[in-house]
Amino acid sequence: MATEAYPGCRFYVLFEGQAQGVFTEVSGLQVEMDVLEYQEGGNNGFVYRLPGFTKVSNLTLKRGLTTSNEFYRWLADVASGRLKRRHISVVMYDVAGKELMRWNFLNAYPVKWVGPQLRAPDNTAAIETLELAHEGVTLG
Questions:
Q1: Among 100, 104, 98, 137, which residue's Cα sits nearest to residue 5?
Q2: How far is CA 111 from CA 17, 19, 41, 71, 82, in A?
Q3: Fewer C-beta within 10 Å: the chain N or C terminus?
Q4: pLDDT band for position 85 (50/70/90)?
Q5: What 3 state SS string does the chain have?
Q6: Does residue 4 fall inside a structural domain?
Q7: What is the percentage of the chain residues whose pLDDT exceeds 70?
Q8: pLDDT greater than 80 at residue 129
Q9: Is residue 36 part of a domain?
Q10: In this structure, what CATH number is given to the domain that contains residue 94?
Q11: What is the pLDDT of residue 110?
Q12: Does residue 3 lie in a domain region?
């Protein structure tokens, strides 16, 4: 059965179930597993390769700069010891508006905020970046 590839341009980012502005880019949808090698004594023909720890990448969100500074305040709160974790969902839609895929990031908190690059001759949108650590991703 053939399946078609969907465009990655229709998505929303939800913070605890509420849409949070218009994000232009999401990256870090990645899960990686370590591979442990075990060499059995007396057997020189091969090395056992076993699954090890699972690691998840940080989630990186980019959006046009707005008058809200909620992301920076969230990072500042975490930096001052007031850790507030949030559940984040990235939801992808098809061209008709039907939900195709949902990635849920558990107990996320900011670890990096990057403000816009400001250059007088440019007329491009000012973009802010928020990087989030989390405790795992589920599909749903």
A1: 100
A2: 21, 21, 44, 11, 13
A3: N
A4: very high
A5: CCCCCCCCCCEEEEECCEECCCEEEEECCCEEEEEEEECCCCCCCCCEEEEEEEEECCEEEEEECCCCCHHHHHHHHHHCCCCCCEEEEEEEECCCCCEEEEEEEEEEEEEEEECCCCCCCCCCCCEEEEEEECCCEEEC
A6: no
A7: 98
A8: yes
A9: yes
A10: 2.30.110.20
A11: 96
A12: no
Q: What is the pLDDT of residue 1?
A: 56
Are 64 and 24 within 8 A, CB to CB? yes
Q: Answer whether 110's CB lies under 8 Å from 28's CB.
A: no
Total number of domains in the chain: 1
Domain hosting residue 91, numbered range: 11-139
Q: What is the pLDDT of residues 26-63, one digit of tens each?
A: 999 999 999 999 998 888 888 999 999 999 999 999 99
CB 13: neighbour CB atoms within 10 A? 20
Examine residue 1 and state whether it is found in any structural domain, yes or no: no
Tokens coding 76: 């500042």
pLDDT the model gives residue 5: 75
Mean pLDDT of the chain: 90
The whole-angstrom separation of Cα 112 and Cα 72 is 9
Residue 43 C-alpha from the chain's centroid: 43
